[in-house]
Amino acid sequence: MKYSICVLLVLLMSSCASYIDVPKNSINNNSMVFDYGNNENKLKYINKVNASADHDLYYTTHFSITLPKNIVNWNVRNNNFFFEYDDKQIFYIYSSYKNEGQESENWELKDIDYNEVLKYIGEYWDKRKYNENYLYEGHNGRVSKLYTNGKYKILFYNIKTENLQTFIESAKTFNTNL
Asked: What is the value of pTM for the model shown?
């Protein structure tokens, strides 16, 4: 009987999602301030490290954004920001360099081909050791969209339809005027 109760408790605890965005885990360093609030998460990216190739210098774009709660994992690689939510819902940001590409005042929400999704999140997907075939499948009750102004890109991958509006509202807080 005791053994059954212990197994049940372990099973219940391991099946619950573990969110990393609790206020005590907030981050404040030279490259970012990631404030995990009670109702939302605020990221301010202020990295001063720029990139260079040959004799060209590329200036890092500083930005801020308000993200939804319940992040289960996140990762930054160069100008790529990955925020994962329950059930492999991915909120991805590509923040191009200041002197790279043309920016428009008009943001658009576009459909995205699942083959194109791999271009944006394939590396993250591999790092998490997820099944690559899952990237290509259409998922019932899920949506993938690209929100862009031509220079900056925000990908919503595998988002539950009931969460899409929350993610879109979050993307609209993306601001490079710091």
From this structure: 0.85
Q: What single string gives the DSSP state of each residue in 79-139?
A: TEEEEEEGGGEEEEEE---TTSS---S--EEEE--HHHHHHHHHHHHHHTT--THHHHS--
Give dist(CA 114, CA 86) in Å, integer: 20
Report the distance separating Cα 40 and Cα 8, nearest Å. 32
User: At which residue do the structure tokens 């909120």 appear?
Assistant: 91
Tokens encoding 13? 């605890």
CA distance 148 to 116: 14
* Of the candidates 95, 76, 92, the residue with the CA atom closest to the CA atom of residue 152: 95
Secondary structure of residue 48 in the 3-state scheme: coil
CA distances from residue 9 to 4, 20, 25, 72 in whole angstroms, order as listed: 9, 21, 26, 21
Q: Mapping DSSP to helix (H, G, I), strand (E, B) and coil, where does residue 71 land?
A: strand
Sign of the Cα pseudo-torsion (65, 147, 101, 54, in order): positive
Counted residue by residue, the chain has a size of 178
pLDDT class for 11, splitting at 50, 70, 90? very low
Q: Can you read off the two tokens belonging to residue 100?
A: 């790279």
The Cα 168–Cα 21 span in angstroms is 19
